[in-house]
Amino acid sequence: MLFERRRLPRGTPILLDDTMRPVEPLTNWFRAMGLAGRDAKTMRAYAYTALMLFNFLATRGRDFASASEADLLEFRLWRREQAEETVGQAAWDRDSAALGQLYDYLVQRGQVPGRPWRPTGRTASLGSGVSRDLRVRRMELEQYLFCRDVGFGGLRPDASLDGTFRGWWPHRNRAACELALMLGVRLQEWSTLPLPELGLTGGPKPATADVDLAACAKYQRPRSVYVPLGAMALMDPYLLLERPRIVAKAQRALRRRSRELFVIQRLDADSARIRGVLDGCTVTRVIKEMDPELRRIAVLETRGDHRGADRVQEARAVPAHRPARPDHAPTWPAPGPRTPATHPAGPRSPQPDHSHRILQLTQQRPKGLIFRKVFPSLR
């Protein structure tokens, strides 16, 4: 009954006390951010920062309204130098942005007269105010081909098969790598790209495709990207050889979690709209307006014969892949001839960073569920 009267967007954090009651004013702030359409990952990061400040002030017998400038500056000192796990300047700048948003909300609600700290000459927040340039390392064509065929495709430097390759589904990996480069899309856009947007709906396969990005694009700014012939051609061996096995292997897990998924029952002829069951209700959605979280849990229910099943649930997303982690430092070889067979050593990818677990989130769909189950090499 409560959630029928008070709607909460997916990914909205809720902070509860020892008696399981919402902690104010944080819970209202989280809900305000959710209703304003803030990204779930942003709200998650802000929730962690606000929770740390809440606990820090509680040990001093203070709260957000009674906190002074000295309390906030000492919190910064604790985060930067004295906590069990300290953070760098870039991470603190993100924390300071969250604190600024929190106190701006409290000012709007009339709970505090203003931010408890005085603005400096460079910035009005507690951050450094330093603008950091984006560091992009250029990759030569030879290095990319080596990365695609050896790092993702499971080949040796002499172009023979590598029996010690720790990844799965090499055709899928190479196709996903080529799509990421040729489309020039960001990670979120690439990892949530559904097959119908590429024209891969079971009928004749187009030679090229134009994809309209909207809800999954950065800042949700619509734009169109072109899928060239080479990227589409690399999808053929994956769709023909590997995808049927992946779908068959995933059936038990998908059926067990079917209530948590967006089960698509019908796809329009123009591949622009889909109709299916979401949270027990039959809904119709425009594909380009589907947010990333909804795309990640979308599966198509078809009639098939995987191990005698009458209905088959198949994830609609283009495969995403993370290469096997190396046990050595990242290095790049000097570029050589354009065939992977002549490279003396392969490029090394850096160790991935491990994100924290979110505190208490309500009504958030299991992130990455489809990819973990349908594409097992992610784990």
**Mean pLDDT rating:** 77
**Could you tell me how far the N terminus lies from the C terminus, measured between alpha carbons in angstroms?**
38 Å
Low-confidence stretches: 305-310, 320-379
Tell me what portion of residues adopts beta-strand conformation: 5-15%
- The outline comes out as globular
Name the structural class: alpha+beta
Order of helices and strands: HHHHHHHHEEHEEEHEEH
Radius of gyration: 24 Å
Largest sheet: 5 strands, mixed
Record the strand order, biggest sheet: 5-4-3-6-7
Count of helices?
A: 11
The number of E-state strands comes to 7
Helix content: 25-40%
Structure description:
With 379 residues, the protein is of the alpha+beta class. 36% of the residues lie in helices and 10% in strands. The chain has helices at residues 2-5, 26-35, 40-58, 69-82, 89-108, 141-152, 170-183, 187-191, 229-256, 292-296, 369-374, and strands spanning 209-213, 223-227, 262-267, 273-278, 281-286, 298-303, 311-315. The strands form 2 sheets. A 5-stranded mixed sheet has the order 5-4-3-6-7. Strands 1-2 form a two-stranded antiparallel ribbon. A hairpin with a 7-residue loop joins strand 6 (298-303) and strand 7 (311-315). Residues 305-310 and 320-379 have low confidence and may be disordered.
